[in-house]
Amino acid sequence: MRFGSLYSYWGTEWKCDYLKTLKKMKEAGCDVLEMGAGHVLEMELGELEAIRAAAKEYDMELTLNIGPPKDKDIASRVPEIRRAGIDYLCNIIHRMKYLDAKTFIGAMYSYWPCDFTDTDKPGNWGRSVESMKEIAKVAEDEGVTLCMEILNRFESYLINDCTEGLQYLEDVGSDSVKLLIDTFHANIEEDDIVASFYQAGDKLGHVHVGEANRKLPGMGRDIPWDRIGQALKDIHYDGAVVMEPFLLTGGSVGADVKVWRDLSNGADEKQMDLYLKDAVQFLRKKFL
Q1: What's the mean per-residue pLDDT of the chain?
Q2: Residue 154's domain is classified under what CATH number?
Q3: Where is the Xylose isomerase-like TIM barrel domain (predicted)?
Q4: N or C: less crowded end of the chain, CB within 10 Å?
Q5: pTM of the full predicted structure?
Q6: What is the sign of the dihedral through the CA atoms of 282, 193, 132 and 239?
Q7: What is the residue range of 248's domain?
């Protein structure tokens, strides 16, 4: 298993200086930097290649994370929006080779943040599956794994637990499509968080970790980290374990993730660095 964090850890906007962030995460002991997938379409090829070179220098893996906007919802009942979403995700997949990135994760089966204005689950599910079949073929050709992130009921209505996630995979029918279990979402939706990892088994392609209030692993008392670590070993999971910590208020990150109070205890950048370093060490101890 390799351990890392989402790129936005130090900021309150969905952007960062990736070269600086790579260096800081390496110094904290990370093996993985999870980038914003939409950013790869905004960068010149030279920028992507510079990030790839830095990641290689630091011996770090790059993964991509997406929460597609509503106008690119592949489950939409509007054909033009579905087409825009399919093309958007496929274009990202095509550009991943410039980063030497092989894992693309997120709520790509619909859009995020969801506003719940259309919750026709059967209809949107079917449209999403048909769209994903097309996207999965591109992923297969490019050697990319797509990991569907299971989200809680307050952020999405389409895939809320592991059972629904496995059904979605079966309906799509592609080896390039797997699941992402996030301890934050699973803590809300699953009867037994640990059992969901066993249920996913070899269909688990990516893991997100965080406390029940989205603090860094080790900052809380509710998530059964020892048992999750054992489950991952039992199912022979050897992929990335990525933290999605949200400690800071303000900006688009705070608004989208609903952080209405400071969870960092007033930490400055140096203290945030130490928090991340401690969390990586915590995960290595619990999971390895």
Answers
A1: 98
A2: 3.20.20.150
A3: 23-246
A4: C
A5: 0.97
A6: positive
A7: 2-287
